[in-house]
Amino acid sequence: MLVRDIIYSWKGWGGKFNLASGMCRLRIYDMTKDEKKAVAHLRPIIVIVSDVPESGMSVRSCAGHIATMVTKDFHIDPHRMLWIEHYPAKIYGEKSEHVIPESFDAVEFEWYADKAIKPDWRVLKPPLLDEIVKLVKGQGFKGSRVRGSMNH
């Protein structure tokens, strides 16, 4: 079940320069709240982040920092979370003749002192990819723009 669908802003570091601050689309699914409850999940919290055009930073470049902030802001146990980066399809070229296909990458982190470090990306493949696509495609954007770190 989708529990959050927002534009999430994170603060960077570097004092007044606020280096590496940005925003992304953040979707949080809690599979324990699924009405069907057919399958128990080892990682029932699915977090999907996507770049947004107005951000100065990509989610890939700040993956560990964003994951650390999201787990703190939304009280998520990182060991019960599946972190996914979503990259929508991109069309480019003089006549829009080139396409970079949509992709979903799972990211594994090492957690040290409640901080996500050493991200390791892997492209999702079926059948997990099929389930994630069903989650994402079944939801239009229902959230709001959120600025700054959230305390929930």
What does this structure look like?
This protein has 152 residues and is mainly β. It has one domain (2-137). It is built from two helices and eight strands. The relative contact order is 0.21.
Show the helix and strand layout.
Blueprint: E1 2-10, E2 22-30, E3 45-51, H1 63-73, E4 81-87, E5 90-92, E6 98-100, E7 103-112, E8 115-123, H2 128-137
Parallel strand pairs: 3-4
Antiparallel strand pairs: 1-2, 2-3, 4-7, 5-6, 7-8
Indicate the structural class.
Answer: mainly beta
Distance between the termini: 18 Å
Provide the domain count.
1
Helix content: 10-25%
* Rg value: 16 Å
What number is the mean pLDDT? 85
What labels describe this entry?
152 residues, mainly beta, six-stranded mixed beta sheet, two-stranded antiparallel sheet, 8 strands
